[in-house]
Amino acid sequence: MIICSVTCADNLHEAKLMARAVKYHMPYAQVAICLMEREIHPAALDVPWFDEVILAKDLGIPRFEASIFKYSLLEGVTSIKPAFLRCLFDRHPEEMNVVFMDTDIVCYAPFDDLLFELEHSDILLVPHRILPSDYPMGYLHHGIFNTGFLALRRSEEAFRFLKWWGDRLYSYCYYDAPFFVDQKWADLAPALFNVTVWKHPGYNVAAWNLHESCRIIVGEENGRYWLADQKPFVCFHYSGTHGMLQYCMNEWIPDRNNPLYQLFHLYLEELEVMGKAELSQIPWSYDYYLDGTPVTAEEKKAYGADIDAWNSGRDPFASKLWASGDEGA
């Protein structure tokens, strides 16, 4: 099994923490990281929990620089996810299963139930919620599935899905409605592909589903955590640590003795140990032209709407003159 994620240099502290937990609970798993930077940052080298670090520009995406120039950091990193997943299947023909996890997900148990499910599932998507919610409008903005966690089994069906998904993210992986980067596209997948909707309550527990009683940790034994009905608490998605997660924990888990509070505080401490203070300040290399001039949000938006600039075949990072068409004159 390969467990993978995509990131930029400014988020390597999260990636290291994610990978360390994977290696602790699943030493048999390979961890692959795709780095969306011009070069591999030194902080990504010699990380004992990374088996492989691949630059996004080496995934074989056609006209890679032009395809990401129009995107923000979040959009650009997300847009290459399908290409990275397909690349891993191609590079590792002996591997049957690839699991994608956002860097802010930490596992607390091995993925035993998931691997069993993948024995007869091609594409496994995880819904944000598995019980009815009093706040259904969120689905209209964020989508039904949280694509920060998904799993694939080597199959033609999985490859068809990755091709379809990647084609759409190549051009339309915008944060703004109706896309919410890659997630609203995934809402269409069950109608088009053989998708398993993975409803195990212990996977991808997060702020947006803490109102579900089946997600609350009710027991701890020998370093393992358990939910109701003896379901294992497998991985937590620490999205929203700037406030949303704390709010949801206070709202839905008022008991401060619940183990989740201890895990959350430990997570924040470990991020600092992994170098958050320094790494989080690293600028994204694709936010700059090759001469070091910053690329503005307005220029990204203009390029995304400029068919002539795209058709010119020029690398938009080479010069601001892509906008005037005078580059190379």
TrEMBL record:
SUPFAM superfamilies in UniProt: Nucleotide-diphospho-sugar transferases
Protein name according to UniProt: Glycosyl transferase
